[in-house]
From TrEMBL, chain A:
Region feature (Disordered): 253-273
PANTHER family linked to this entry: LACTATE UTILIZATION PROTEIN A, UNCHARACTERIZED PROTEIN YKGE
InterPro entries on file: Cys_rich_dom
One Pfam family here: CCG
Protein name: L-lactate dehydrogenase complex protein LldE
Originating organism: Pseudokineococcus lusitanus
Domain Cysteine-rich, residue spans: 4-86, 139-223
From TrEMBL, chain B:
Keywords: 4Fe-4S, Electron transport, Iron, Iron-sulfur, Metal-binding, Repeat, Transport
Lipid biosynthesis listed as a keyword: no
Domain LUD: start-end pairs: 92-302
Record protein name field: L-lactate dehydrogenase complex protein LldF
Amino acid sequence: MRIAVMTTCLGDAVVPQAVRATVELLERLGHDVVLPPGQTCCGQMHVNTGYLREAVPVVRHSVDVFGPVADGDWDAVVAPSGSCTGCVRHQHAMVARRAGDERLASRAEAVAARTYELSELLVDVLGVTDVGAYYPHRVTYHPTCHSLRMLRVGDKPLQLLRAVRGIELVELPDAEVCCGFGGTFALKNADTSTAMLADKMSAVLATGAEVCSASDSSCLLHIGGGLGRLRTGVRTVHLAEILASTDGSGAAVAAPSRAQSGPAPDVEQEAPL
Amino acid sequence: MSTTDLPTPVLRGAAPAHAPAGTGHLRGTRSFPAEARDALQDTQLRRNLGKATGVIRAKRQAVVDEVPDWEELRLAGSAIKADVMARLPELLEQLEANVVARGGTVHWARDAEEANATVLRLVREAGADEVVKVKSMATQETGLNEALEAGGVAALETDLAELIVQLGHDRPSHILVPAIHRNRAEIREIFLREMPDVDPDLTDEPRRLAMAARAHLRRKFLSAKVAVSGANFAVADSGTLSVVESEGNGRMCLTLPETLITVMGVEKVVPTWFDLEVFLQLLPRSSTGERMNPYTSTWTGVTPGDGPQAFHLVLMDNGRSGVLADPDGRAALHCIRCSACLNVCPVYERAGGHAYGSVYPGPIGAVLSPLLTGISGEDDPNASLPYASSLCGACFDACPVRIDIPNLLVQQRAASVESHRRPTGQDVAMRAARVAMTSPGRFTAAEKAMSLGRVLGGRSGRITALPWPASRWTASRDVPAPPKETAREWFARTRPGQER
């Protein structure tokens, strides 16, 4: 399949390792990956902060950049983020309609219909749960609110993780409770956000895991920022990075040569975040 | 005002768009973040709230899970409410006609002040100087107790939790469990201090506390001539009012006094008796986590020789017409005050109900309070309420009538932004971000500027302190230094000529 990757603004500028892992994983699975160059941001920050008018041109730009998927130029758009996918799927058309732009709204819906979060793309569209990954670490998984309740991804990320060789997957207590990030919520209500983070960190530490994973870099930035501040020694790693990790044998899936040319994801885990 | 022949507020737009400022308890005086900061420092409060919401959450989930058609019930509840909102004036007129036909009197109140004045006048006409009260959000909303007190009438709350709040000279912090923020040791101290005839050896054993309250209340039930209640439902096609409760104190008030005055928000009407079937399944499971509430009382007008011989219904607008006219906000009127959204909300659980400054706290309160009272500018505490959520969506999943609270919060955030009279720092930042995010060239330039921030990370690659406003993040969280290479730069470098 020909798949366009939505890097997300955060993924491009702050945590590129999740995007790199997404590209390498999809290429390893034999797909043709493009990174539409004009892309910037889905507009979620504007929408969720109440700047619905300011969001209109941002949404229009995003719909223009990913419009080719609606015309059949690509088979799918994928984002390594539940919340950005949620914004595309549930908010783009709402923003356009509220501004009275019905044409933009229906174009946005056509793009949204082929835009997936990573675990949705892998399990529902590509029909794969074992991606041939190898990751010998004790991992706990935070399901993230928008993946759970906006996209209803259910246990798809866990299906993928369970198939990873070498992994020791441990259940996170109160997994479905918000970590307290919430975009500008973390700044506007910093005290409440910190209290929510404290409880999430307690849950993560209770598992004894060395890695906390999720499929939203924003939540990981928050949880990882707190775990780092407390010097807990627990690191946060995006789901894509785990799925992109291999033991180098390329055992389960035929890997195009390019997949090995980038830095190995295991090395990247030592990087900040 | 207060005769049956006045126009329905929702019919002719006679009611003001918003509930009046300065009357009742819908509007706080400080912003949510300021209130929450204080609450978060109260370790006892954090414990009390965390424990209580956790218990209710688990109970609710267990009884919801045993209903095979829960989703269908939610859809039915939502559909009935949408129908009610679509023909509210017609249903209210039908309700009025049926209440009057069965010997009751109906009064229309455009706002809280009119509702309070009507009740005070009726109490005086009944020759009473004290009333017993059934737990009622509507009269909490209007500040009826204070209005009666100013008029020389004492109002006694008979719901156990409301009594604890009243005796403690406190404010309710939860829709269903107003004293959720108190533990039993605190309740014992309140009783010892405030109940004249209480046993001085009272312990904090729940049964002993309940018996003390029972003895205290029983004397009042037997002496009161007037009762004031709210209503959970009003059935238009029969003129029947209904209250559901757990303790039976409400039923005492509804049956013993000579005069009964019911104050209800206009949105509480349902078309037919059969519609109760849906809500009487949804409400108790969602609110108290019970299959059925212990007491369901219904009454229709007056019955000679049985129960109150005078019945007055006060139909109150108090901003609801304005909400009804808002196509985005209208769904907030579907709320049946079950409080399920409070109990699953991670923000409510930590900050508590007082932080919302309104009798309607939690996720639904964060949209309902500003909708009812309006947002008067960027400094209005109401402007901060819609942001008192991480938009995690747990409230929507818990709502028995499927109110899309996260979407309502976003719409109210837009109302908050649009209330700005002068540009705020946030406005400037959002405009700048919009400019960068609509042009690939400018976006890349912004990324380049940001990557200069690598120096802040030093050798550790972690930033631990940033200037305001980002300092609100680094107060408790590190930030990774920006990477050397963006994802798009990496893709262009490693896959030359293959960007598209």
